[in-house]
Amino acid sequence: MKAGTRNIVIIAGICMAMLNPLFAQTPEDAIGFWKTVDEKEGFTTSIMAVYEYEEKLYGRIIVSFDEKTGALLETHRNPSQRIKTIADQPKLLEVDLFWELERAEDRWRGGRILDPRSGRSFTCDCWVDDQKLILRGRIGPFGLNSVFYPVHQRDFPAGYAPPELNRIVPNKP
Length: 173
Description:
single chain; Lipocalin; 1 helix
């Protein structure tokens, strides 16, 4: 390789290394509204508010859609579905589905996540990768990732005003 070409390659490499932090994703990127999507049909099945409270991360479903049709079921303003697998049967949209994750270098770690279908909770971590929220529930060395996508205004039901994230108070199941 000629000296001039080598210098251009070195300079390009240095520029790429300097730009990389601009595109790096931080734990704060997890805060906001995220949705689950039916992969076969492409419709939204839920919208979740991910918020920080006293330096810990929490997540709560605020809009629920029918998992078979995508039709609106309810919002957090008028919840009705109950988590029947938990003794006091709290309303699904009134409790956090994950809670008390602590900020780490590049993600949130050490919290708990609830499986509302079984009523069991698991250790979990959360991070953003390629503009997707990854929530990983774990039992020992085994785990399962759930993927959430950014919410756009058009994803909310017509006339619905989402809650202000800085006003949500945790409610663990």
